[in-house]
Amino acid sequence: MDLDAIRAFALLGIFLVNVQTFADPASLLGVPSPTDAAGTAAHALVAGLFMGKFYILFSFLFGYSFALLWQATARRAAAAGRPDDFAAVAMRRFAGLFVLGLAHGLLLFTGDILLTYALAGMLLLGLRYIGTRPARVTAGIIVGVIGAGMVGIAALMGLALSAPEFESILQGELAGTAELLSQPYAEFLIGMYPSTLASMVFVQGPIAFAAFLIGLSAAKDRWFERLTRRTLVRVALVGAAVGLPGAIATAWAYVGLHPLVGSTAAFGLAALTGPFLTAAYVAALLLLFRSGAGRRVRSALVPAGQMALSNYLGQSVVMVMVYTDYGLDLANRVHPFAALGICAGVFAVQLLLSAVWMRRFARGPVEGLLRALTYWQRPSWRRGAPGSEPGAAADG
């Protein structure tokens, strides 16, 4: 139950970050629209406390669940007296995520992460026997290289901005992309998709894969089963001690520097320090869940976490209906703080609807379809169906 609750918490954080590109599409280009002091504060808040933290957490949980799926598939194979077919099971699952991600990116949200997860998941499948220590070392190297590289690129961009030639090239690129922003949303998605897909696969993708490795390592070492209160307090304190200064630096870079330089530097700083703050968030949540009030919070979050894929896609549907010409077309007309408030309201509704749904069914709407593809069987959402026993959440 803890993992499902944490997954729902990550879902909220991702929502708060993703809404920025809907409420202010220019932020996708690294040049958020000018706003008042309160709006700047909202951008700084999101950059410092949320950006680069929650997709890392979601990726960690993906790696952890990958290990649970591996174990569940082995148990099913042993019970049926047949060879373990985990590779085929996992590849069907990743194929389903790839198709979902492609449709999501082209029809709803250009910043889709599912397709990237599918590609990185295939790489994880090939490396699933990696030792826990090599996995952690590899993850650290990946994050360090990407984070430091982005900070370095930002520094070079800052120097290059003083050159008239670079400024001219930059303005030309921005003008071309600004033209896309003026197009109907469907055309904007198709036009932006190649560049955002490249960014997702080659920049965010490696960091997500690093988090996959940490999640896989955590599952193999049974981290969550061995956590004590003392360990959680220590993780929360150390994570906050490193992560909060990093969050302040990230927020300052995002709102205080040239937009393109600042967004690049902020991403790099978030990659380097975000995992510490993410660990602090998780430790604080797990400590909260051990209290009476915290158990009620956990119970409220669990259903949404059990159908996180459906809720993730549902958030995109709501955002396109509110902010694009698919619906109300309120982009650039909603204050950044109001946009965060809308997210909080939508998430509260998702918690309620998820609780109602999961009282009647064993898995979420999209989760049922993905599970059917994963195990190559007829879709089933009802309780009591094969695979709906406790612990089946590992396979969706």
From TrEMBL:
<feature type="transmembrane region" description="Helical">
    <location>
        <begin position="301"/>
        <end position="324"/>
    </location>
</feature>
<keyword id="KW-0472">Membrane</keyword>
<feature type="transmembrane region" description="Helical">
    <location>
        <begin position="197"/>
        <end position="219"/>
    </location>
</feature>
<keyword id="KW-1133">Transmembrane helix</keyword>
<dbReference type="InterPro" id="IPR052529">
    <property type="entry name" value="Bact_Transport_Assoc"/>
</dbReference>
<feature type="transmembrane region" description="Helical">
    <location>
        <begin position="113"/>
        <end position="130"/>
    </location>
</feature>
<feature type="transmembrane region" description="Helical">
    <location>
        <begin position="137"/>
        <end position="161"/>
    </location>
</feature>
<keyword id="KW-0812">Transmembrane</keyword>
<feature type="transmembrane region" description="Helical">
    <location>
        <begin position="336"/>
        <end position="357"/>
    </location>
</feature>
<feature type="transmembrane region" description="Helical">
    <location>
        <begin position="267"/>
        <end position="289"/>
    </location>
</feature>
<feature type="transmembrane region" description="Helical">
    <location>
        <begin position="86"/>
        <end position="107"/>
    </location>
</feature>
<dbReference type="InterPro" id="IPR007349">
    <property type="entry name" value="DUF418"/>
</dbReference>
<dbReference type="Pfam" id="PF04235">
    <property type="entry name" value="DUF418"/>
</dbReference>
<feature type="domain" description="DUF418">
    <location>
        <begin position="219"/>
        <end position="377"/>
    </location>
</feature>
<protein>
    <submittedName>
        <fullName>DUF418 domain-containing protein</fullName>
    </submittedName>
</protein>
<feature type="transmembrane region" description="Helical">
    <location>
        <begin position="231"/>
        <end position="255"/>
    </location>
</feature>
<feature type="transmembrane region" description="Helical">
    <location>
        <begin position="54"/>
        <end position="74"/>
    </location>
</feature>
